[in-house]
Design brief:
Distance between the termini: 26 Å
Helix content: 40-55%
Order of helices and strands: EHHEHHHHHEEHEHE
Strand order of the largest sheet: 3-4-6-5
Strand content: 5-15%
CATH class: Alpha Beta
CATH superfamily: H-NOX domain
Radius of gyration: 16 Å
CATH architecture: Alpha-Beta Complex
Structural class: alpha+beta
Number of strands: 6
């Protein structure tokens, strides 16, 4: 199944454009323009312009799912790289310099709470019709119900894009050694997606390696 996006509706929930734009950038760098265009055709989604606003949730989901169908396990690493790039974009363009400076100088547990609060406030930009909340502060755990970017089905937690976004943000501003582990995934169990942050790092199941191209 290609997961081609249905025609967007005016009232459809939307997700920030980096869910697609950064994925396109990763595909261009690692697989080449021809393969990128193939994935977009499979998704049934036009390539959005670089200055796109919020995009229909169905299109973002279709691109991520088409990448999984087309690339198999390699899609894990590609979506991870897209998530890291999205985190870099947020750090450079969406978090004011003074806010980053404050978070960096606070003790880790306070900086983490401040950053988690900011993420919660803007969660609609990356969960669309899904629902986001902080499940726990010890350890810091994020929960997404009805995650629109989840895989259709998977044998293990597979929301690498979201995990990478969280890891880049907290690794840059709060805990340099942090790792993010998805311990529950809607793609596997049908329940919520749960992401645990390990401040001192933890060996976790990493996405399949990306081959350069």
């Amino acid at each position: 199944m290609s997961g081609a996006a249905p025609a967007p509706q005016d009232d459809e929930p939307r997700i920030g454009p980096n869910a697609i734009l950064q994925t396109i950038g990763v595909l261009d760098r690692h697989l080449g323009r021809a393969e990128r265009d193939r994935v977009m055709r499979l998704a049934g989604v036009p390539v959005p312009p670089p200055d796109s606003g919020m995009l229909p949730e169905s299109q973002c989901r279709a691109v991520h799912q088409a990448l999984r169908v087309d690339q198999g396990e390699a899609a894990e690493g590609l979506l991870w790289l897209s998530g890291l790039a999205t985190g870099d974009y947020i750090l450079a363009n969406r978090i004011p310099g003074f806010a980053k400076a404050i978070i960096r100088v606070l003790p880790g547990f306070l900086g983490a709470r401040l950053l988690a609060a900011a993420i919660t406030k803007h969660a609609w930009t990356f969960v669309g019709s899904g629902r986001f909340r902080v499940e726990s502060f010890r350890p810091l755990t994020f929960r997404i119900d009805d995650n629109p970017l989840r895989a259709d089905a998977a044998e293990r937690p597979s929301c690498f894009w979201h995990a990478a976004v969280f890891e880049r943000l907290f690794g840059t501003l709060v805990w340099p050694e942090v790792t993010v582990e998805e311990i529950s995934c809607a793609s596997v169990s049908g329940g919520p997606c749960l992401f645990v942050l390990h401040p001192q790092g933890k060996k976790t199941a990493m996405p399949s390696s990306v081959h350069s191209g």
